[in-house]
Amino acid sequence: MRKLDTKTIIVASHNAGKIREIAELIGPLGFSAKSAAELKFEEPEETGTTFEENAAIKALASARASGLPSLSDDSGLVIDALDGAPGVYTANWAEREDGSRDFQMAMEKVEKALADRGAIKPEERSCRFVSVLCLAWPDGHTEMFRGEVEGTVVWPPRGTQGFGYDPVFQPQGYDITFGEMSSDQKHGWRPGDAEALSHRARAFKRFVETCLEA
Length: 214
Fold this sequence. Notes:
- The chain has 214 residues and is α/β, with parallel strands linked by helices.
- The chain is built from five helices and six strands; from the N terminus they run βαβαβαβββαα.
- The protein is 28% helix and 21% strand.
- A six-stranded mixed sheet has the order 2-1-3-4-5-6.
- Belongs to the HAM1 NTPase family.
């Protein structure tokens, strides 16, 4: 495993919600970070069929464009009753014809797909959020960190916190959705803590343990 020996890093994302969450996690570690969106890097086409492949595409593009280590996230909602969909195409389910993204529409698509499969009871609506972080260097070296959190798809959506599908994801062991949680509740982790709740925080914890801690 390669250790990160700089405090300057690029957040390889154009997604405002992801950029905010990664900034909240990385901030306490003293990093100077800018996003690919802020630097106006071209958004690479995500042609991978796994979270790992797409995370690497984004991280390597920013690392090569900036000459600095870059951290990307590829994440999605994996629903058992839908054979793993939307999965790596989670963001695509929110795309409109004009290229914009509408996650209310995406959540409605999920609910219709579940109803069409007859998945009505909570035990029939099991799912997980998956996050894969990729740390890439300009020379092409990458390190991967995967985090998952189990839960249930609920309907109707609840809460206005977070972003994306958060209002329909109720994590296992909780009676509220990610959309009803503050950032601190959702992540459930800060450097030095033993546990993490969200998929992104769990992946980030592994990144910290692998690439930052001695």
